[in-house]
């Protein structure tokens, strides 16, 4: 089944948006498989964002992501990767549509409160990177028959 790695960035945690952001994914109907508050190392942040390592903003991005605790989440469901990106909104919060997380809750690309995997392959890669074996739960939600026919 498709999984996406969703992460509330340090600004989202500091601004008290954890409940609000988790709630958007919960209400949509995806299944939460893993969840933790976590202070990440520079090495882990650099590995996570390795595709951006040549960008001029890479050092500030790593400082940002390691500046405080983040909330790591694994969400599951058909189409979860693309749908989560839509719920999150455009990278630049000023261009993100109202109704999206970034559109409603943020103003700057460098403080855009949440991360979402950009492909199912990266969803798996990032969940393997951020979660250890045993940190994900295998469970079934009682809502499932009311969400999918
Ligand atoms: P993520 O879900 O966090 O991966 O964001 P994204 O997929 O919408 O954007 P992308 O992967 O291209 O960039 C990753 C993150 O780097 C962004 O979410 C921003 O936090 C940061 N970033 C991207 N572009 C810029 C930029 O031009 N300036 C700054 N300061 N940060 C940037
Ligand atoms: Mg990205």
UniProtKB/TrEMBL annotation:
Reaction(s) catalysed by this chain, per the record, are: a ribonucleoside 5'-diphosphate + ATP = a ribonucleoside 5'-triphosphate + ADP; a 2'-deoxyribonucleoside 5'-diphosphate + ATP = a 2'-deoxyribonucleoside 5'-triphosphate + ADP
Protein name (Swiss-Prot/TrEMBL)? Nucleoside diphosphate kinase
- Which GO-annotated molecular functions does the record name? ATP binding; nucleoside diphosphate kinase activity
Q: Which residues form the Nucleoside diphosphate kinase-like domain?
A: 1-138
Keyword Ubl conjugation attributed: no
Q: Which UniProt keywords apply?
A: ATP-binding, Kinase, Nucleotide-binding, Transferase
Q: Does the keyword ATP-binding apply?
A: yes
Q: What residues make up the catalytic site?
A: 115
Enzyme class, top EC level, equals transferase
For this entry, list what GO says about its biological process: CTP biosynthetic process; GTP biosynthetic process; UTP biosynthetic process
User: What range of the intact protein is shown?
Assistant: 74 to 222 of 222
Q: Where does ATP bind?
A: 9, 57, 85, 91, 102, 112
Its source organism is Panicum virgatum
EC assignment: the record states: 2.7.4.6
